């Protein structure tokens, strides 16, 4: 099927070559529905103000700040944008896309206690982390908007061969945008294009030719001539 040809585009990117294990990535739980849900990367409604006096800064909280800290430090130190795929990396018991302003302040306070880091260093790490995460969320949300708009346009195409080229072009753009979306987004769009291509190819096939996916390489099997 067409998805077999997507393997090069379904590989989860590492932040640095070999520096972040795949086990650190939490499986995406959110996908794009026909309504274009962006909840997977939307900031939670929570607006609690951080109060250092009432916050839990006990030793029991330290494992939450230490596990994955090297990865977070690398993300914070990136000179370029963070990969959208890393929004599902789990830190502080949450995927990055779910971290709130309260969480960032809480992590800053814990960093100084658990790792004896200065307030300046803690602030630098988590302020930069927040900036990278928010930028990646914006990038992904822009791609979700493209998916919504493109899906609507493609579903309204008239049946026939003239629409097949439009679907092909959408597939190429999906490939170009593949690193700007979550894997679940990519699966959703690929499945949609797959079904639409079959739908439009059938009425255009007036000669009864066997359907061959343009996204699957031709067979390399051959028979030895005698």
In the sheet with the most strands, the strands line up as 1-2
Give a count of the beta strands, DSSP E runs of length 2 or more. 2
- Unreliable runs: 1-37, 211-226
Structural class: mainly alpha
Q: How widely separated are the two ends?
A: 33 Å
Helix content: 40-55%
What percentage of the residues does DSSP assign to strands (E)? under 5%
Q: Report the major sheet.
A: 2 strands, antiparallel
Q: Kindly state the mean pLDDT as a whole number?
A: 78
Question: What is the assembly state of the chains in this entry?
Answer: single chain
Q: Give the overall shape.
A: elongated
- Summed up, the helix count is 6
* Rg from alpha-carbon coordinates: 23 Å
SSE string: HHEEHHHH
Give a short summary of the structure:
With 226 residues, the chain is mainly alpha-helical. It has a domain at 140-204. It has helices at residues 62-66, 69-76, 101-114, 119-155, 162-176, 183-204, and strands at 90-91, 94-95.
Question: What this model shows, in words?
Answer:
With 226 residues, the chain is mostly helical. It has a domain at 140-204. Helix content is 45%, strand content 2%. The chain is built from six helices and two strands; from the N terminus they run ααββαααα. Strands 1-2 form a two-stranded antiparallel sheet. The chain is elongated and about 70 Å long. Mean pLDDT is 78; it is low at 1-37 and 211-226.
